[in-house]
UniProtKB/TrEMBL annotation, chains A, B:
Catalytic activity: pyruvate + acetyl-CoA + H2O = (3R)-citramalate + CoA + H(+)
Keyword field contains Hydrolase: no
Molecular functions (GO terms): (R)-citramalate synthase activity; 2-isopropylmalate synthase activity
Protein name: Citramalate synthase
Pfam families named in the record: HCS_D2, HMGL-like, LeuA_dimer
Pathway(s) the chain acts in: Amino-acid biosynthesis; L-isoleucine biosynthesis; 2-oxobutanoate from pyruvate: step 1/3
InterPro entries: 2-isopropylmalate_synth_dimer (IPR013709), AIPM/Hcit_synth_CS (IPR002034), Aldolase_TIM (IPR013785), Citramal_synthase (IPR005675), LeuA/HCS_post-cat (IPR054691), LeuA_allosteric_dom_sf (IPR036230), PYR_CT (IPR000891)
Family: Belongs to the alpha-IPM synthase/homocitrate synthase family.
GO terms classed as biological process: isoleucine biosynthetic process; L-leucine biosynthetic process
Assigned EC number: 2.3.3.21
Length: 551, 551
């Protein structure tokens, strides 16, 4: 719980290596992302858990929400290591720094670190800023000096640096020198348009350092990369390898266009692959890399942007193995098939079941689900064959663990749990009226359970919803445990798109009982029938998982 | 339309630079992806449009679906440039290559190129393959020789090469030499676990080339990267810069775990940033980079994996600029704020705040459909607003031109074409019996057309199929033209996965009359109702397109 009135950490100066998070500022530029002050206040402690050195909170003065964030952060946040940074721009052309209202707002934010964006590409100075190169250098120097004079630590983000250095290296260098000489502690080289490749990044950083001459030793360089060429992580590492000691990025690679450099993958690479120690996790919890997966997912809950399953290190699929080719060897020696131990980043290995899977991966999956199939050759052969046949029909078990477990249980014990016997079901959808009149859906289920014949009718906004309600209503008479089950996801995939509605449909549903979530699959030419299969599997798995015996 | 019995392109040997797509094989290893033979046959021509040199279709012999793919591809696909490659493994230990059934299946596939995966890490040879280093070298040499002797071009994928080379460089080099000496035209260095960084990739490729000595000049090297460290694109480029002339990857970066190197971003970087010309688009259409965005999206429709908005080059957000710092300057000089011209990859710049962009593109789209909206400010404003409202509800018109045209026609003329008036419809799905008994579907439609009240009932294998039949039956009484219409595609997407079956459903259907194909969209909480909307739009558009007047 955040305490109020606590003193923030205010480091006296930069660390040997600075990890600077800009999720709350540059990350929030992402299309469709809209962070409230409360969202930002919820994300900041997670970044602190991760062990970043700096949290760039926004642009106070320019964005009212950000002004409020800094005011509330001072009272409500209790950061252990991370220091807040306010983002802003150098003074306007032809205005004294002291009179620039925007610089004033940065001071008023009371953030101990201020990051100023400065133009470093002479074309941008002329065409976008519409001023002279000389005035731009004065803008940088004056603004930095004002803030440093007021006791702030200043970082300068040299915008469009790489494009600028290639176009006019002397001018780009002069901007860096103006910032450093005025007292900026770090100058961050920004690939603002994101189009660089790693070799070019390394080359420019090395050329700049040579051009700085004796000033190089006094200059701390940083890197701020965007992912437009798909190389933001590699570009950031290339800059660090060329001497940058300050890394900017965003959690989950959020950001405008293709996003910023994913801070998580970059930091994990630096720590696990180049031997640098860059995060400072809090002393009172594991923090750092070991909590990275949790932190990534919690932040995506706040941003309400669905996590990307293939995201390096923290994605749900990042350590999921499907290929049968590898499965037998993974069992012998998982290290041979994983670039790192997934636990190092708080993630876990998963075995997926598929037609490509052989007996070995089924054995492993069985073990994961509590079935010891080692040496049970006959069962393994039967299960492998059944999965191959099922997948040929369109089933997939890699996203339907619960259906797979029922299949496995059936093959091991020889029967399916007999919770109920279906006599019939029917779903009706109708609309009486023209476009605009809503349609109605109703379903009736007749089944036998607990020695009774039960008939139940449910309504819903569609046929599957109505069937779900009817099935639940019918079964609850005998299995009140079902009241807690809730359908939370429903996916439909048409498998053979070339035959229109004659195609085979696969339905995946996810259900929860508040504690566990499970997925089941149904397949058939008829979408409603496929849904029914997944719905009944879901009820059976849920009851079985709770240890309920058939009544 | 695919012709039958066409001769495939069979290049005599490799090009100066080979682009080798493995979407259909390694990409299909992605969690949740399950490509049918029809899916693969639909994707291959899109890869050919892109201009890749090779399409790896699967593993014939090991996976029945893949055996079928190669058989059908030979008859049904008409590739212009791309050559099909079959994937398989080197012979088993202790078996003669000639007797290896799996190698036999590769020959039977009749693919002109065969790609063999071979172990190149001595630890994998011992622990996973459980044989000796010497036997593994013989397995590589024998297998390559057999296939080359049968007239196949052979590529060898050296699995776990980078880890292997670091562990035991002499053995990894010997595997490369064994393959080359036996006649393999290219040896592909695989970062199978995906954990490399670009600097390490460059170093290993250079060290290998030095270790090959005089054999280096005879050896074509390739690269196969995975994205576990978030660097697959950069790693691929690093290998090319170190001398690799064969690039493997997948469209949209599909693949196991974090995916393979995204072929699209890698190729775009190579062409636009390193000046290499690597794609060979067909002569009869723009193809290549200029169609990359369309191709990426069409492939994601087939895989039914939602496109990633932040995907480099082709993502919906890749050139989208949010309000703020840059907006005014972008209008002055877009080149200052984009790493490339988005049209170079068939994408477009979007200003997320500007109403102007919306109106301009609607005007353009209108012109494409035969409506001159220039200067019709009121109509443009109305259409823009209606589309914004519709998209907020879940409609998409990108893939539903016909629905968009009806909307536009309605706003221009003030009415919808009144071919029929629906009184009511009803769909019933029922199953009398337990699991295994087939369900039946029946639909009744009541409508008014040609001065009559018509009631028709259709059956089908599902509710949408039944409704389609009923609607067609009813309308044919008055509009016999409908007899030629056929539903050829039906796609369902659940838009808000967090609310289970309460979510909004979007249905896209495609219809053909034998000459033209058109797509319509329907949206609603009820899948059947959304389908009905798309079905009726389809009938209306088809009749209007044929110049049929309402009767």
């Amino acid at each position: 719980m955040p305490r109020t009135g606590v003193a923030h950490p205010v480091a006296d100066g930069p660390a040997a290596f600075d990890v600077y998070d800009t999720t709350l500022r540059d990350g929030a530029q992402q299309e469709g992302m809209n962070l409230s002050v409360a969202d930002k206040l919820a994300i900041a402690p997670l970044l602190d858990d991760l062990g970043v050195g700096y949290i760039e909170g926004g642009w106070p003065g320019a964005i009212p929400k950000d002004t409020e964030f800094f005011a509330r952060a001072a009272k409500e946040l209790d950061l252990r290591h991370a220091v807040l940074a306010a983002f802003g721009a150098t003074r306007k052309p032809g205005v004294r720094a002291f009179d620039d209202t925007q610089l004033r707002a940065l001071l008023d934010s009371e953030a101990p670190v201020v990051t100023l964006v400065a133009k470093s590409d002479s074309r941008h100075v002329e065409r976008a800023l519409r001023t002279t190169g000389v005035e731009n250098l004065a803008m940088v120097a004056d603004s930095v000096r004002l803030l440093v004079g007021e006791g702030r630590r200043v970082v300068v983000d040299a915008e469009h640096f790489f494009d600028g250095f290639r176009h006019d290296p002397a001018y780009a260098r002069d901007v860096v020198l103006a910032a450093v000489e005025a007292g900026a502690e770090t100058v961050v080289l920004c690939d603002t348009n994101g189009g660089m490749l790693p070799a070019g990044i390394g080359e420019v950083v090395r050329d700049l350092r040579a051009a700085l001459g004796t000033a190089d030793a006094l200059t701390r360089l940083g890197i701020h990369a965007h992912n437009d060429s798909g190389c933001a992580v590699a570009n950031s590492i290339a800059a660090v390898e060329a001497g940058a000691v300050h890394l900017q990025g965003t959690v989950n690679g959020y950001g405008e266009r293709t996003g910023n450099a994913d801070l998580l993958a970059t930091v994990a690479n630096l720590e696990l692959k180049t031997g640098r120690s860059v995060l400072v996790p809090p002393a009172d919890r594991p923090g750092g890399l070991a909590e990275m997966t949790r932190i990534a997912h919690q932040i995506s809950e706040v941003t309400n942007i669905a996590p990307f399953a293939r995201q390096p290190y923290v994605g749900a699929s990042a350590f999921a193995h499907k290929a049968g080719l590898h499965a037998s060897a993974i069992r012998v020696d998982p290290d041979l098939y994983q670039h790192i131990d997934p636990q190092a980043v708080g993630n876990g290995m998963r075995m997926l079941v598929s037609e490509m899977a052989g007996r070995a991966s089924i054995e492993l999956k069985g073990r994961e689900l509590g079935f010891d199939l080692a040496g049970q050759d006959e069962v393994l052969t039967r299960v492998t064959q059944r999965i191959k046949d099922a997948e040929a029909q369109g089933y997939t078990y890699d996203a339907a663990d619960a259906s797979f477990e029922l299949l496995l249980a059936e093959e091991v014990s020889g029967t399916r749990p007999a919770y109920f016997r279906v006599e019939s079901w029917r779903a009706i959808v109708e609309r009486a009226g023209s476009r605009g009149t809503p349609a109605t859906a109703e379903a009736t289920v007749k089944l036998h359970a607990g020695g009774e014949r039960i008939v139940a009718t449910g309504e819903g906004n569609g046929p599957v919803n109505a069937l779900d309600h009817a099935l639940r209503l019918a079964l609850q008479r005998v299995y009140p445990e079902l009241a807690e089950f809730e359908l939370i996801d429903f996916k439909v995939r048409i498998l053979d798109a070339m035959h229109g509605t004659d195609a085979v449909t696969r339905v995946l549903i996810e259900t929860t009982d508040g504690q566990t979530a499970w997925s089941t699959v149904g397949v058939g030419p008829n979408l409603i029938e496929a849904s029914w299969e997944a719905l009944t599997d879901s009820a059976i798995w849920g009851l079985r998982n709770r240890g309920v015996a058939p009544r």
